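User: Fold this; tokens only.

Assistant: Input:
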Amino acid sequence: MAHYALVGTAGSRRPRLGRPAGATTPVTEAGGVVLLLPDGETSSARGPSPLAHATALPLARRLARAGRADGLVAHVVRYRGRGWNGTDAQLAEDASWAVSEAVRRYGDVPVCLLGRGMGARAALRAAGHTAVTAVLALAPWLPEEDRAAEPEPVRQLVGRRVLIVHGTNDARTDPELSYRFAERAKKSNRDTCRFEVHADGHALRQYHDEVGALATDFVLSTLFAHPQSRPLADAMAAPPPLGLRMPLAAGFGRSLR
């Protein structure tokens, strides 16, 4: 197990996986695992945010219900703290630890990393773990492209299925930066697509049900080879820019298949 440094003044913290979302009894076996990575902050020595954790729980429970027959287990990862903290990339390190912990608990099972905001960046960065087969990034926080700094890596995404979802009115994380990232990722990994949620913001509340349906479709099709919805299959197959600016239609999950 990796060594984790002290964070802030609260002493030595460790990331935790906790119990599976929606489970009422201990779970020892799984057919696949989805790890949800909550949002965070650019720089902070504070402990993990209870609000960010609570925000991730409804989607975790939804996925667990939808994948119960396949043995899907969903965990919301509890970070050591809430800050990315520059080159320390603490949230990505915690995400990688969580994948290793899932493998320790459940054995050789496929893992999907699903993050929001800063957690989405952590999911994308930690995708190089050998157990990860898929990454879903919701409204990812990605840094401005700076010639003096290394660009956000994409090589670790090769061989994974990658879905990015971003609201066009996101005032917290720039959707154009996630498009540029997806454009670079697509060059080395064909299994990359990106959906735009028109007029929605960072929390993706306006099309909450559609985003949840898309996430369920993606997770079940990538981990268990369920039939993929036509819009998701089309987005994966389409060349840029079409496959990276695919609109998420109202009613997705109810009328589109």
